[in-house]
User: Fold this.
Amino acid sequence: MGCIKGVIFDMDGLLFDSERICYEAYLHASRKFGFQMNGLVHLDLVGRVESGVVAETRRLYGDDKDVLGWRAFIKEEKEAIRKSRGDRPGKRPGVLELLSYLNERRVPYALASSSVRSTIDSYLVGEYLSHDFRHIVDGSQVAQGKPDPEIFLRAVEQIGCDPTETLVLEDSYVGIRAANAGGFVSGFVYDDVSDMGVVTEGLPILVELSGPEAVRREAQTDFSDLCHVIGFLECKR
Assistant:
């Protein structure tokens, strides 16, 4: 692992606390529709484009289940929860510090998120960061979602760096796999939602899922929060 000359950020659960909104909506949906839910399911689904989430949910619970109904309800719940918070997803620890560092050192960076552009823009506006990201790639701009590296390869073109010299910061398993597949330096920042509870009754989860330790083993490096990325980058200049 050599010098790091650029950084690519995921958004949900990495820049913003929006995955806690998402997981709360998952819990509401699991109780309404009667399916089990826990943090491992969340870790498995996070980072995927919508078509990927639907396909994976069917794999987890069965092709015959009303996955589209669940997803529609989840989207409504996410919007309601977010509005109850004043349309602000909340920043993850270290966001402002890391962005300040990158700007001071003139390190180019981009945002690459599976979310649609309207969601990205609303989150950036809600947290007063709309002028901090000049380079953005959203899920609608790629043919293949994560774990395919397409979204990161598009983002790295915008900042003019080589993938081998670009750190991708991710909170998802599919994101880390995508970064590795594209030849990037992958950095895992775990977004732990275990304190929010689980639903143990209802339709069972049909497959065995991996936890955060499995993601850490695949990531080239991992950080407790975004502040700790600064020390890593200082060592890689």
About this structure: The beta strands are 6-9, 109-112, 136-137, 166-170, 185-189, 221-223. The first strand starts at residue 6 and ends at 9. DSSP finds ten helices and six strands in the chain.
